[in-house]
Specification:
The complex is a heterodimer. By secondary structure, chain A is α/β, with parallel strands linked by helices. Chain A has 18 helices and 24 strands. The chains are: A alpha/beta, B mainly alpha.
Chain lengths: 517, 326
C-alpha cells in the first residue's frame, strides 16, 4: 500500500464553524484499489472532512490534490464531475420521485433534449442489480420505501455515477444484515475494479472485514493511520476516545422473577398484515429487546403501544389493567406514562429549526404549566437536570437543535421524553449513526432508568447492543414473535438464526456474516 | 407490483380531476337548454382555457414548492399590452404576439430571479411583483379599451371543421410544446426535485436554480398566453384588479383540484387543466339551474371544498396515524 501513488490527497485542511473547530490541519491520502476506513467519535471531524471532499463545504485552508494536481470543488456537482461520489448519512434521495428518477438524477440520459425514460429504466435496473437490490422496482416512489430499501437505492444511485472515489458515510447503519452482506460483496468488487473507497462506520466488525487502511480522527485531526488488522479493537477505541476504554455495556443485574404485575403487557396484538398475534410482558426494571431483521414489525409494535395505529386488535395492559391508547398524547399521559424515542429523529423526534430549549420542553409543557401558563423557573430547572443527566454538549440552550451533532441531537430527543419521567420507555433503534462514546452513555442511562423502575422495550438493528443491554430479547419474524431469548441464551448465533427463522446449528453461517462478528 | 399500477398511482390526482370534470360537464350539458352541441362546448372551452392557462402557469411554480401570486397580474398586464400591440397587418400582429409573450417571459424571469437569487419567499416576492405588473397594466390602460386583430381572434376562438373548438386545440398545442418537454427535461425534473426536497436535490448535484428559474419563467409565459386569449375573447384590454386577483386565487384552486401538491414535487399541469375546466364548469352549473348569480361564489366555494375533500378520503383508510402527515 505504501508504495502506491495516492489517487487523492488532502493536506492541512482546516474548517471552523463559528467558534467551533471542526477540522484542524487534517491530512488524508487515498489510494486507488483500496478501502480506507475513517474512524472517530461523532464530532471528531469525519463528516466535515467528507463534506469538504464532496464539495459541500469549502475548507478555510489547506489543499486537495487529485492525481497530483490541485483541485477545488465549488459544489457537489463539481466533485461528482471529478469522480468523487458520496453516500451521505443524511439520505440524499428525493421522496416524490421514483427510484429510477433518483438513480439518474445528476445526469439523466437524454434523447432530443428530453429525458430518455427507457434508457433511464435500463440504467436504473443495472445499477440496482449491481448494488444487489434487484427486488426494488424502478418505478416505485422513494417515499413509499422503508429506510433500508432507500439506503440500497442510495448506493445504486452512487454506482450509476461511475465514481472513482466512493465515500460511504454510515451507509450501512439502516441496513439489514442480509443487505450488509450484499453491499460488502459489491464494495469488494469495486475495490478489485480499482476504485478508492472511503468507509465511515461506527461498527468495528464491519471495518475489520472490509478495510485495508484505517485512519482515526479525534478533535478535527487525524491522530493515527495504520494498516487494517494491526491494532486491536481496544487500542482503536482508545485512539478514538482518547481515554482508557472500559466496559462498554453496564452490568446486568441479577433478578428473581417474582410474581409482580408487569408494567406493560400485550395480549394477542394484531394489526393489518404487519403484526401477528403478539403477546409480551415487561416488568418494572426490565430491559426487553426486540430483535430480528429490519421491517419484521418491530417498529409497528412500538407504534401500536404508543397509540399511533388504528384498527389494532388485542389488548394492552398497563399495571395489569386494560387500557385503550388512542393517541400519542394519551400514551404519554401521566396515568400511562409512556415515551417513545423515535427512529427518525429528524422528522419524528425534533423540530430542527427550533431551539434546544423549546425542543426539550415540548413533550412536557402540560406538566410545566399552571392554568395554561408555562412556569419558566420550573422549566429551566428540569432542563438543567436533563442537560446534566445526559451530558448534552451544546453551545447554548437557545441555538437551533439542528446545529448539534447527531449524537447530541439524539440525547435531546431522549431528554425531551425523560422530562415527563416516563415509566414505560419504548426505544426505536436509538443508537443509529451515533458514536461509541454516546452509545455507551445511552446504554448506561438505559440501565439506570430501568434500575429506577422503568420498563424498557428496546428495538435495535445492532445485535451487539441487544446482547449487551437486554434481559430478554424477543425476535420478530413476519410480524410474530418467533423466539424469546433469556439471559445467557442471547448470543449472536441465536439472534441471527431466529432472525432468519431457521433453527439449525449451521444457521448463523453464510447468511448472517455481514452483520456482526 | 406491475408497471401500470405505478403509473396509475402517479396519475391518480390527474385522473381524479379528469373524472370530476367529466361528471360536472355531463351534468352541465345534460341540463343545458341547447344540450351537448358544438356551440355549448365552444363557449365552455373558451371560458375554460383562460383559467387553464393560468392554472398551468401556477402548476409550474407550485411544483417547485413555491407559489406565484402574480400570475393573475401578468395575465392582466399582457391583456392590456395585447390590446395595443396585436393589431394591424399580419406581420405587425405577429410581432405584437411575440412582444406580449416576451413580456410574459420577462415577468416570469423577474419573479424567478427575485425568488432564487434574491432569496425572498415566493409568496412575498410575487405579491410585490404582481403589484408592479398591475401598475404597468394601469399605465397602459387607465380605462378599458383598445382592439385586437379580429381575424386572428375569431380564428382562435372559433371552431375547426365546425366542431372542434380552436381554443382547445391551442391549449393542446401549448401542452405539447411547453409542458411535455418541460416535464421530461432535466431542468423540469430539477424543478420537481427542488420542490420535493431541496437539500437532497442539492446534495445530488441537481441544477436546482436553473430548474426553478425555468419554472418561474415558463409560468410567466403561460400566463401571457392566457392574457393573449383573454384579448381574443373580449377584443379589448382592461386593467381589472378584481379579475386579476380572482384568476390568481382560482388558479390555486384549480391546481389543488388537479392533484398538484402545494408542498411541491408532485402533480402535473394536465391535472391542473382539468382542475381549471372543472372549476369553471361549477360556475356554469348555476347558470343552467337558473340560480341567482349572487349565489355563484358561495356555491363555487362549497363545490370546491367537496371536490378537494375527495382527495382526502384516503386518510380515512389510513391505519398508521403517522401517515396523516406525509
Amino acid at each position: 500500500m505504501d508504495g502506491a501513488v495516492p489517487l487523492f490527497r488532502m493536506e492541512g485542511i482546516s474548517k471552523r464553524y463559528g467558534g467551533v473547530r471542526a477540522l484542524e490541519k487534517a491530512d488524508l491520502s487515498v489510494t486507488a484499489g483500496s478501502i480506507h476506513a475513517i474512524l472517530g467519535e461523532n464530532g471528531a471531524g469525519k463528516s466535515t472532512l467528507i463534506k469538504v471532499m464532496a464539495g459541500v463545504v469549502a475548507p478555510d485552508e489547506g489543499r486537495m490534490m487529485l492525481e497530483g494536481s490541485e483541485v477545488t470543488f465549488a459544489s457537489p456537482a463539481a466533485a461528482n464531475q471529478a469522480g468523487i461520489v458520496c453516500i451521505f448519512q443524511e439520505l440524499s434521495l428525493i421522496p416524490e420521485l421514483s427510484v429510477a428518477d433518483n438513480i439518474v438524477i445528476s445526469g439523466p440520459p437524454k434523447r432530443f433534449g428530453m429525458i430518455d425514460r427507457k434508457a433511464q429504466r435500463r440504467i436504473a435496473e443495472e445499477a440496482l442489480a449491481r448494488a444487489g437490490a434487484s427486488d426494488i422496482h424502478p418505478l416505485a416512489l422513494v417515499k413509499d420505501l422503508p429506510l433500508s430499501r432507500r439506503q440500497m437505492v442510495e448506493i445504486a444511485k452512487a454506482l450509476a455515477r461511475k465514481p472513482r472515489i466512493l465515500i460511504l458515510d454510515e451507509a450501512t447503519s439502516a441496513l439489514t444484515a442480509a443487505d450488509v452482506a450484499k453491499i460488502f460483496g459489491v464494495l469488494k468488487r469495486l475495490r478489485e475494479e480499482g476504485l478508492a473507497l472511503l468507509y465511515i462506520s461506527h461498527r468495528m466488525n464491519e471495518i475489520a472485514e472490509l478495510a485495508d487502511q484505517c485512519t482515526v480522527f479525534r478533535n478535527g485531526r487525524n491522530v493515527a493511520s495504520y494498516a487494517a488488522g494491526s491494532k486491536s479493537d481496544n487500542e482503536v477505541v482508545e485512539l478514538m476516545i482518547g481515554r482508557e476504554y472500559s466496559h462498554i455495556f453496564p452490568p446486568k443485574p441479577v433478578r428473581s422473577h417474582s410474581g409482580a404485575v408487569p408494567v406493560l403487557e400485550a395480549r394477542n396484538l394484531s394489526w393489518s398484515d404487519r403484526l401477528d398475534n403478539i403477546s409480551l410482558s415487561i416488568g418494572a426494571g426490565e430491559v426487553i429487546g426486540l430483535g430480528g431483521l429490519d421491517g419484521q414489525g418491530q417498529r409497528e409494535l412500538l407504534l401500536a403501544f404508543f397509540g399511533v395505529l388504528r384498527g389494532l386488535s388485542g389488548q394492552i395492559l398497563v399495571d395489569g389493567r386494560p387500557v385503550s391508547i388512542a393517541s400519542p398524547s394519551a400514551a404519554s399521559d401521566a396515568r400511562i406514562g409512556m415515551a417513545l424515542i423515535p427512529e427518525d429523529r429528524k422528522t419524528e423526534g425534533l423540530m430542527l429549526p427550533m431551539t434546544v430549549r423549546e425542543n426539550l420542553s415540548f413533550a412536557a409543557l402540560d406538566r410545566l404549566s399552571k392554568a395554561g401558563v408555562i412556569d419558566r423557573a420550573a422549566e429551566q430547572r428540569l432542563i438543567d437536570d436533563m442537560v446534566g443527566l445526559l451530558a448534552i454538549k451544546s453551545a447554548g440552550l437557545d441555538i437551533p437543535v439542528g446545529a448539534l451533532s447527531g449524537g447530541n441531537q439524539q440525547k435531546v430527543v431522549i431528554a425531551k421524553w425523560l422530562m415527563r419521567q416516563p415509566r414505560i420507555i419504548l426505544l426505536n433503534d436509538p443508537t443509529r449513526g451515533i458514536d461509541v462514546g454516546t452509545k455507551q452513555e445511552l446504554y448506561q442511562l438505559m440501565r439506570k432508568l430501568a434500575d429506577a423502575g422503568a420498563a424498557i422495550l428496546f428495538y435495535s438493528t445492532d445485535y451487539d447492543e441487544l446482547i449487551g443491554c437486554c434481559d430478554r430479547v424477543l425476535v420478530l419474524y413476519d410480524g410474530a414473535v418467533k423466539r424469546e431469548l433469556v439471559g445467557a441464551e442471547i448470543t449472536e448465533h441465536a439472534l441471527i438464526a431466529s432472525a432468519l427463522n431457521i433453527h439449525g446449528e449451521s444457521a448463523g453461517r453464510g447468511a448472517g456474516k455481514g452483520g456482526e462478528a | 407490483m406491475k408497471d401500470w399500477r405505478y403509473w396509475l398511482a402517479e396519475q391518480r390526482g390527474t385522473l381524479l380531476a379528469f373524472a370530476i370534470f367529466i361528471v360536472m360537464f355531463a351534468i352541465y350539458s345534460a341540463n343545458h337548454p341547447a344540450g351537448f352541441t358544438a356551440n355549448v362546448v365552444q363557449t365552455a372551452a373558451n371560458k375554460g382555457v383562460l383559467l387553464a392557462f393560468v392554472a398551468m402557469a401556477q402548476t409550474l411554480v407550485v411544483i417547485t414548492a413555491g407559489i406565484d401570486l402574480s400570475v393573475g397580474m401578468i395575465f392582466t398586464l399582457t391583456n392590456c399590452m395585447a390590446s395595443w400591440l396585436v393589431v394591424g397587418t399580419g406581420l405587425e400582429t405577429a410581432f405584437g404576439v411575440i412582444a406580449v409573450v416576451g413580456t410574459g417571459l420577462l415577468c416570469g424571469a423577474v419573479n424567478g430571479a427575485i425568488v432564487i437569487y434574491g432569496r425572498l419567499q415566493p409568496i412575498v416576492a410575487t405579491i410585490a411583483s404582481g403589484a408592479v405588473y398591475f401598475g404597468l397594466a394601469l399605465l397602459l390602460r387607465p380605462v378599458p379599451g383598445g382592439s385586437v386583430n379580429e381575424d386572428l381572434a375569431d380564428f382562435l376562438t372559433g371552431r375547426f371543421f365546425g366542431i372542434v373548438p380552436a381554443s382547445l386545440v391551442a391549449l393542446f398545442v401549448v401542452v405539447l410544446v411547453i409542458w411535455v418537454p418541460f416535464s421530461r427535461s432535466e431542468l423540469g425534473r430539477a424543478a420537481y426535485a427542488a420542490g420535493s426536497s431541496e437539500t437532497a436535490a442539492y446534495m445530488s448535484g441537481v441544477p436546482i436554480r436553473r430548474g426553478k428559474f425555468l419554472a418561474y419563467t415558463l409560468a410567466g409565459l403561460l400566463a401571457a398566453i392566457g392574457g393573449l386569449f383573454l384579448t381574443f375573447f373580449t377584443y379589448t384590454g382592461e386593467a381589472a384588479y378584481a379579475s386579476g386577483n380572482a384568476y390568481t386565487l382560482f388558479s390555486i384552486a384549480a391546481v389543488v383540484l388537479g392533484g398538484v401538491s402545494l408542498f411541491g414535487g408532485k402533480g402535473s399541469a394536465i391535472g391542473a387543466i382539468f382542475g381549471a375546466l372543472a372549476f369553471r364548469t361549477i360556475g356554469d352549473l348555476l347558470f343552467v339551474f337558473d340560480f341567482d348569480p349572487l349565489w355563484q361564489p358561495l356555491f363555487q366555494g362549497v363545490v370546491l371544498l367537496i371536490a378537494v375533500s375527495l382527495g382526502a378520503f384516503a386518510l380515512f383508510r389510513v391505519r398508521n396515524r403517522l401517515e396523516w402527515f406525509l
